[in-house]
């Protein structure tokens, strides 16, 4: 078998990508971020999206 590149790409992230704390729930592991950090990140993404819309407003 020469297909050494064909590995099962199981990407389990067990550390929060934001605070690098341990992720305990399967959902957090699947998302790669803890629940508290997920809320913060969502707020940041919303703020970033709002910033993009603001730029859109300026362009238009
Ligand atoms: Zn975290």
Summarize the structure.
The protein has 60 residues and is an all-alpha fold. The chain contains two helices and no strands.
Task: Note down, in words, how this protein is organized.
- This protein is 52% helix and 0% strand.
- With 60 residues, it is mainly alpha-helical.
- It has one domain (11-54).
- It is flat, with a radius of gyration of 18 Å.
- The termini are far apart.
- The model has no long low-confidence stretch (mean pLDDT 83).
- Zinc ion (ZN) binds at residues 16, 18-19, 21, 33-34, 37.
- Zinc ion binds next to loops.
- InterPro entries: DUF6011.
What is the helical fraction, as a range of percent?
Answer: 40-55%
- N-C termini distance: 58 Å
Report the sheet-strand fraction. Answer: under 5%
Largest sheet: none
The radius of gyration computed from the alpha-carbon positions, rounded to a whole number of angstroms, is: 18 Å
The backbone outline, from C-alpha atoms, is flat
**Unreliable stretches:** none
* Total domains: 1
Elements, N to C (H/E)? HH
Q: Helical segment tally?
A: 2
Ligand catalogue: zinc ion
Arithmetic mean pLDDT: 83
- Tell me the total number of β-strands: 0
What structural class do you assign from the helix and strand content?
mainly alpha
């Amino acid at each position: 078998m020469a297909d050494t590149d064909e590995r099962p790409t199981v990407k389990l992230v067990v550390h929060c990508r934001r605070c690098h704390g341990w992720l305990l729930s399967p959902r957090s592991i699947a998302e790669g971020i803890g629940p508290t950090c997920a809320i913060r990140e969502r707020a940041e993404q919303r703020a970033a999206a709002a910033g993009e819309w603001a730029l859109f407003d300026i362009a238009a």
